[in-house]
Amino acid sequence: MQGGNNDRARAGRGWLAVATFLAVLAARPLWAAPDDTARMDALERRLDASMKLIRELSQRVEQLQKQLAHQGIANSAGPSGASPNAGTAAAPSPDEQRISAVEQSVQQIALSTSDRAAASGLPLHGFADVDAGTHNPTFPNLKGADIGSMEFFLTPRLGDRTRALFELNFEVDSSGDVGVDLERAQIGYQLADSTTVWLGRFHTPYGFWNTAFHHGLQIATSLRRPAFLEFEDHGGIMPAHTVGAWLTSAQRIGDGRLTYDVYVGNNQRIRGGMLDMNSAGSAHGGAIVGGNLGWLFGGALDGLKVGVDALSSRIEDVDTTPTIVTRLRSYGTYLAYDTDRWEHIAEFHLFSNYGLQPAGATYHSHAGFVQLGYRMPDRFTLYTRYERTVLQQADNYFQALNTGGSYHREALGLRYDLDLASALKMELATTRFTDRTPMSYDEALLQYAIRF
Amino acid sequence: MRLLATTLLTLLLANGPALSGELFIVCHTDVTLQSADVRDLFLGDKQFSGSVHLVPVDNAAQQPAFLERVLKMSAAKYSTGWTKKAFRDGLTPPLVLGSDAEALAYVRRTSGACTYASTRPADLSLVASF
């Protein structure tokens, strides 16, 4: 009988070896991938998980061996001394029971691990950046080091079709005070595969940049936004946010994809020389309406997107008495080409504004930028950008904005990706204002941007 | 026993990941997809199969092979793409599980779930193989 137990113990060890081998095979790590810190971390985690699995399997087999030993002793001490399987031909053999037990253990471990991973709670993401330079990249009258911004965005899982997105931003203003903005608060219902209607405050879907990057500086190649596309409280001349309803969709057609956005919301106003998106509601019931139509190429032109957009809003300048009201109309076109090697973005907006109160003439202005980027080997990206605005100063809309003057800026930058989630950026830029107060300044800027 | 485990791990570390084997795209049995949908599924552009909400699951052990053969993109581009997608559209990036066993166990018991693995389980819907 003792010999039988030894055989079973050897068989148990054999099955342990097989089970361990299969389990470890199933948990192969990523070490042969290109040298990458994230993958090394993944390798370490996989190795830890494998060792844990082996420990658990070892404990389980030892437990089975002890049970088997007890069973053998009990059988040898029994009156009949018969085989435990005698008279029960249909019952599984001890080896089969052990195999089944080990299989169940492995399955339970896998289930337990995937359960823990799935129950990760509320997804929290964010961006942050710090800067240094000869000028503050946003407030050029300041220099030295500065805190850029830190922001969180939440994408809670609410069900199959209900979605939500909240974005909270902490940033330092020109006086050094920390301000908090609820950048986005939107709740949406997914009507179809790639069609969602959102309600709340969202990034106004004009052009390409405003919805693609917005506060996400780590995912933008360049160190900062084009100046005319800045946020409302940073001197932007277009309404970067809208409070209202937004229908967005992307339909696959052949190799390509048709994207479109339609939105309506509270009209904006000008207060303190800056645009304000009337988050609490519009005093006089005006509205902004707009749309964006784009085409994402597939096949040989994969990575290329082109599109057009338009918006119209009734803008009240509440800094004046009586209030001056202007019809803002913008027509835009854009192009973005994003591949493993290149990132090119161009955006152009034509304004055709006219006075509503008092009634006035129509003024045509324009603004645009072209950015070319080349992703070099070894994580470096070289980029250059040219921005230019020609804004009619007789237009009440631009006249009322603190930053409504025309300018052009040339920039040359270098980005280095330290890893997937952090980047160092350097930029040299020259900015020249061409109307209100003609002047120019040069900048050398450094930024450390992360995402999490 | 420790010697056995250490030997096995050492052998596996020396051999590296098996990128050359076949890769199977499998889904929960309530999912009906075409092989042409795989790219859209894992890039967040396809979210429903009929009325079933799709749940893509990344299998870290097979991800290098999946990105190379199926999506044909780098890990950096895939990760950044999902960050942009989450930031713009409020989508949640795929759950990442560590091995075939974990990913397949999750897919078996989760409606709409899909993943990729180096083995072809008979009890799941096969969408494509690469």
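The first helix of chain A runs from residue 2 to 26.
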